[in-house]
């Protein structure tokens, strides 16, 4: 295992660190960027690695190429680095020594210390909140983790939740692609990478993006930066139980990391007028589309307006404006239509205006208000009643987002009205456009509803809120993060104390991961392992978990494609036509209502190499004589494995 962990370190260095260093070196030589930072290196590394990996995998699948040719890509960067060093154009040892000596400088050491404290906090949070037995993780997380298993077979992954051999599984998968590729490089299991590594990696990227945003203009107080990040991390707003749970989800946290790194690039572009920053912000921001589409809403608002504003102000030429527009359209459109979009007509939820003062139909907004009111909040109710008296409308669409993010609204108001504005300068148009994008996401949540799968509307709230909170912290730091940041620290600590005492300390219990509503027994886990060892990765299996709602862990734990799985109405990653066709036949199969001829025909049409039946949901038929061998039988389940027929037979 130690060797595999060393390989994991090599992967991060070779595929993220090395390209970032080489690109930064080349851009600095051309004068395209100023002095770099860890956030800028991360922007370059992620912005190069993941798009190049996606494009390679998309090309490799139809060509039948394996993944390993992509693994030789770092050789090109290594050769370039060697030639540059040999020619005397680059002295990495001298630069590393200079960086080490710079730590002797009090200010540099202080920045490194507080950045390191952020990493320590993340490691402690992961260790405290993230680890549990793999089979106990929430079903939604199992569904997403299983994507990584089947990306190893093809990309986009083949369908694995219902028998559709010619269909690909269309859903968000960029974080799972990264996990699958690291697994193939290191030999570490997908499950261990997904549940033991990915969340800490994502939170680290969030911290880097937050740090980069905070110092996009110039270096500010590292102590206040760390304090604001801890505030951002742990104080998620009144009624934030669901928000905290989703902050722990692997796709959501990776999407948020991409958004904050993109915010950093856009803010840096505003402050330094480096067109390169704008392009890389577009590249990394577009990755949110393939990770969690709704996360891209603030950027979808901001990126075009920032580009247009930069052109009108003369920061960039029309040609560069056109290049940026083409890049944004190609990446966002390519990721969505080429990888994510499920083309089934039944998997296309639509937004419809749904606001009325009584909230009779808008159950999502009503539920948010109910959760927020569990925290005693007389001011909210007073303002709602005052709005009814003055306007004839409670204005829930306005007051609810304000009070769900109240601490951060206070931070922003303090930055605007109490901060040292003349010395710090204006917050800038780009900042306010980004805020507008986040507010747009919050208002979509408040004023609209999906016509199906309505619960997904909450993502507009989560990502709009996280983006707004990070921007409010950025604004506060610009105003209070100078040489003397004691006032800013005092205000944040007072606000943190009030919030923790009011609700946030209790809410912190929700950092414990959601658990699986179905407890997989030891015998079930043995059956999954038997299926893994006695069948091949591309094989199909038939099980009867589909008879229970929202059980998707078979594919992640057995690592085999399922003939049928639980169907969730309105899900964008499921086509009801396939499920509706197979379900009646599967029910007859597990109810033992088929004749031998029907069983043979069913198993020929749906070529399962394993059949697993939980007795409490139907033990199914006797498959002896049909080419299957019973390998497990107990009071919980029956497991049949297809016998291999020798060529002579």
UniProtKB/TrEMBL annotation:
Transmembrane segments: 34-56, 63-83, 112-129, 193-211, 223-241, 253-272, 278-306, 318-337, 396-418, 430-450, 456-477, 489-505
Keywords: Membrane, Transmembrane, Transmembrane helix
Protein name: Glycosyltransferase RgtA/B/C/D-like domain-containing protein
Organism, scientific name: Candidatus Lambdaproteobacteria bacterium RIFOXYD2_FULL_50_16
